Amino acid sequence: MSGNAVYRLFGKRIFDLLIVVPLFILLSPLMLILMLSAALVMGRPALFRQIRPGWLGKPFTIYKFRTMREAVDSRGIPLPDEERMHPYGTFLRRTSLDELPELWNVLRGDMSLVGPRPLLPEYLPRYTPVQRRRHDLRPGITGLAQVKGRNSISWERKFELDVYYVDHCCLIDDVRILCKTLASVFGRAGINQDGHVTAAPFTGSNAETSHTETSK
Q1: With contact defined as beta carbons under 8 Å apart, do 187 and 150 qualify?
Q2: pTM summary value
């Protein structure tokens, strides 16, 4: 068994816990302040919960700080994201502080620090067979696609990077991705896709994406 395979099976989870356990304890006061602030500014609940597909497509509940108002039109249909986005929520997204509750998902084993981002369940049938392989690892708080452009790159490019990461996952790359994530967060790069608050929905690929090696 290769070193990368051992890391995937055992080392990656140990690596996550060694970082997340002390980090969760250290950031707990900040998360409490942010949760109380979100409740005061936008109302309860302060936490956003949503079902996402995880490892092998199995569903889990992801936790984030809420960034949008619960605003609807006269028919009870939620308003577009750009109209529901609260200024405090914009601040949380620009600083990536809305992602902090996902540390709890990592502690639970639903997620990893690094891996393909968990997307919406309705995307599952839209993936090509190659794109579906992004679920062969636990989803991550950050990932290769996030440090290569986040929401400023196309869905096809994101999935290409996700599958590349699944095939080449190793400790040194996880360390590099975490370091690059910190740099991109402080630089606030790639948060939004042009014309959207975050990113346009994924409606499916026009043609099956071939798996080619991606430069790192």
Answers
A1: no
A2: 0.81
